Amino acid sequence: STNIIAIVGRPNVGKSTLFNRLVGRRQAIMDNESGVTRDRSYGHGDWTGKYYTVIDTGGYVHGSDDIFEGEINKQVELAIKEADVILFMVDVEAGLTGLDEEFANVLRRSDKPIYVVANKADTNARAHQMGEFYALGLGIDIFPISSQSGSGTGELLDEVVKHF
Ligand code: GDP
Ligand code: MG
User: By C-alpha distance, which of 55, 10, 12, 14 is closest to 148?
Assistant: First the structure.
């Protein structure tokens, strides 16, 4: 099987930071720093002997908070179509936003396994704030992670690769 993981979510939640960590290759970092708006980036990685392809679906200029309904639909529909597992990323620092809910509403159309990834859980206090995302009523489970430090990403991958 192809073992495709797609990362979706609104701008600035940390999708590309997680992508780089899951791929762990310099090439991915260079692609993301090029400043070119692109639909998606693909990278390869492995965890406990299982190989996967990860898609960073955020196709807009780095640092921009702007995203339109059409882009949300496009990003999520791409993920639903191509992925075997979807990581829906939210940001515990910012909390639950209207855009997160818009993404969640499109994701509800999917029958693919979804995990809610509560990023920027850099401290235990921050990790506890993930509770508010249960209100989304979406996903198999919520995983608090810090894409920056890598904490929690191992536990997340342990679950994800069970689908492969
Ligand atoms: P994207 O737009 O969803 O791809 O988000 P990026 O990966 O570009 O990250 C957006 C911002 O959040 C950047 O300034 C990152 O350094 C920051 N960021 C990403 N992950 C973390 C994290 O785990 N903790 C904190 N504190 N900041 C993070
Ligand atoms: Mg990005």
Answer: 14
